[in-house]
Amino acid sequence: MTTLAVDPAALDGAGAAVVAAGENLGSVTSTLTGALAGSAGMAGDDPAGAQFGRAYDETAATVLQAMAVTRNGLCNLGDGVRMTAHNYSVAEAMSDVAGRAAPLPVPQPTSCAAANSAPSAIGNGDSAPAGWGWVAPYIGMIWPNGDSGKLRAAAAAWRNAGTQFAVAEIHATAGPMNAIRAQQLPEAGLIEGAFSDAYSGATAIVGQCQTIATGLDKYAAKIDAVHAAILDLLARICDPLTGIKEVWEFRHRRGRRRDRPHRP
Fold first, then answer.
1. DSSP per position, 57-116
2. Phi, psi at residue 146, to the nearest 5°?
3. Whether pLDDT at 17 is above 60
4. What is the tens place of the pLDDT at every residue in 140-167?
5. For the chain, percent helix, then strand, then coil, each to nearest 5?
6. What residue stretches are annotated with the Outer membrane channel protein CpnT-like N-terminal domain (predicted)?
7. pTM (2 decimals)?
8. Which of 87, 126, 174, 264 stands the most exposed, by the fewest C-beta atoms within 10 Å?
9. What's the CA gap between 68 and 74, in Å, rounded?
């Protein structure tokens, strides 16, 4: 026969702390989406930017949905622990023949949170420099109109969200979960399994946030590199002593690369 040793008040406090940790996850998500409010159109709408933007939009929506699921799951876990504490307190009060024990109040369930959304990364961002429209048809290049500053700001927001998500879930639940494990409960296995699922979900989200941030930083660097190359070319083309020569050599370099036989 299993021996039960439960402190309802301690169990209720631990459950409330788990609920608070879950609600903190919601705050982390709200802070993230607030920081991303200015990121609309950051990838631009040139062919490469639109492709990157579509991939980013899909990934961001998936991670934000996972954040909401993890937040709600952790809050539900805390609510369940509190209800368990209430039930034990009722049993304890009924077994007190002196009538001095009073059960804990019935805990109110935590409301579920809907997934937040982020603005689309696709849109017209940075404008092409003066003179580019005249030169572009002759050199066959496209000005990437993404905004590298917005991309880096969004990367910082995602990176910070990953860090804060780890703090809010992984670290903030350590204490209350130890208090729950200290109770001798027949429900211990179910509680442990639910907590393990929440931990795995949060760990995956932290990694996804870092991956998104890295991708945004890399695309920002790519845009800056292309912009710098184009601006350098424009500066040389606009020089009356070298302009015609630069266009001629650029076009013929591209032609030689196209005509070069492919190696197996």
1. HHHHHHHHHHHHHHHHHHHHHHHHHHHHHHHHHHHHHHT-TTS---PPPPPPPPPP-PPP
2. -75, 165
3. yes
4. 778 899 999 999 999 999 999 999 999 8
5. 70, 0, 30
6. 132-231
7. 0.84
8. 264
9. 10
CB within 8 Å of 155: residues ≥ 6 apart = 212, 213, 214, 216, 217, 220
Pairwise CA distance, residues 84 & 185, whole Å: 9
3-state secondary structure of 142: coil
Q: Is 200 exposed, middle or buried (0-12, 13-18, 19+ CB in 10 A)?
A: exposed
- Residues 227-254 as b/e (b if ≥16 CB within 10 A, e otherwise) read beebeebbeebeeeeeeeebbeebeeee
- Beta-strand ranges (E) seen in 90-219 are none
* 41 contact partners, CB below 8 Å, separation of at least 6: 119, 120, 121, 122, 123, 124, 125, 147, 150
Residue among 24, 18, 3 at smallest CA distance from 81: 18
**Per-residue pLDDT tens over the stretch 69-124:** 999 999 999 999 999 999 999 988 888 666 677 889 999 999 999 999 999 999 98
What residues contact 86, with CB distance under 8 A and at least 6 apart? Answer: 8, 12, 103, 104, 105, 106, 107
What SS3 class is residue 122? strand
| Distance separating alpha carbons of residues 40 and 37, to the nearest angstrom | 7
Q: Taking the CB of residue 199, how many other CB atoms lie within 10 A of it?
A: 16
User: Which pair of structure tokens corresponds to residue 38?
Assistant: 């200015």
CA angle 109–110–115, rounded 5-degree value: 140
